[in-house]
Target: Cation efflux system protein
Amino acid sequence: MLIVFTISALAVTLGVGYRLGHSNQTLPGWVPLRVAALLGSQPAKPTATGPVIYYRDPDGKPLYSTDAKTTPDGRPYTAVHASEDVSFDNPPETAAPAQDNSGPKRILFYRNPMGLPDTSPVPKKDSMGMDYIPVYEGEDAASTIQISPGKLQRTGVRSEPAALRTVTRPIRAPGTIKLDERRVAVISLRAQAFIETVENVTTGDHVTKGQPLFKLYSPDIASASAQYLSTVGDNARVANLGGRKQLIDGARRRLENLAVPADVIADLDRTKTVPLTITWTAPRDGVILERMAVEGMRAMPGEVLFRLADTSVIWVTADVAERDIDAVKVGSAATIKVRSLPGREFKGSVALIYPQVNTETRTTKVRIELPNPDDVLIPDMFADVEIAFGAKKPVIAVPNGAVIDTGARQIVFIDKGEGRFEPREVKVGTRGEDYSEIREGVGESDRVVVAANFLIDAESNLKSALRAFTDAEKAK
Model:
């Protein structure tokens, strides 16, 4: 019965409305109320304002477009205006001044809600329909920047506390393997001689100290040897022992001045015979770098016959950029990698910083001494050098991205919580690969912004510009 009555009442109501509408008569007040009660009253949808931001699927599917388009069956996408878009910002503040314990605050001006350098002395909306934000007296202090939580969430602002860390940074430079100049030797004669035979040693061979290299005949060495034997065997001509010793020492010194090896002189003392040829041996362990001796040649005094080098210790000369040279110290640890030996690292230390700068490359050479026991490091190989640099004990440090360098100063933003940030000038020390030492301006418990601080910096610059604008208006 209730259903029948409801349907009848609805029909009567609609009928009355139809007749009155066609007869230009006014409906009784109870009619629209009755119709609303029967059909269910729905609140009116607010009118969309602002420009069209994007277009969405008419069926509510997660399909969007920046331009107008249609569905596969020909239906147009629904336009979404600025006022209909979802916003995470705080609700717009009213134009009425906020109240506090000290009384009402005066509104200085209204600023653009998107952070643009645009202000207004009266309330207004931007092109997207967003209300301008009022700036109250006392809120434009230079020490604090206020940012809405919605904007912080969208831009990904993060902060973390400053902490004690060991800040290190490797100084990278290209290098070249070089011979240790102190371990290079040449073999030459101090008297004219003829090379009789040369041993089977060639350039690149490893030789040991005392290993025979060649045999020679020298008239000067033979004459000095004969004089030495004559002096040693002549007992009658010298009456006193002191004079005899001086003659023997003089004859021996002549042989030494001719660079006759000590084992050859020992053979003279043992055999009491002047040898026809003398065997010349290697003065040290090393690699033959050059062989100039040839059988049958005449060697003049000072002529180089062999050049050899001890490669158990080698040098690495690195070209360090001029801006990094102050960070390199004698004794600093260095790591060397060569391209022909991937995966291997060699450890050494800085032995010398050369006292000049290459005017063409603006680099300074740094010498690193490196042990080479297995002789895998060959002279003139290219090397990648990393020299350790940084504080040896923990210091207060923040991530590199937290520091904004303006050229004239360095600042960080301190997170005060609730969207409030304070710019603070700091003194930066050592800059590591990931962290920078802070010598002044930040304590161990301070939280600094480490991500998206460019947004806060933009807000800070805007606030400074608006403050200057306000001060100029007050001065008028």
User: Anything to note?
Assistant: Residues 1-42, 88-101 have pLDDT under 50 and may be disordered. The chain has six domains: 2-39, 52-84, 87-139, 152-165+393-475, 171-180+311-387, 190-302.
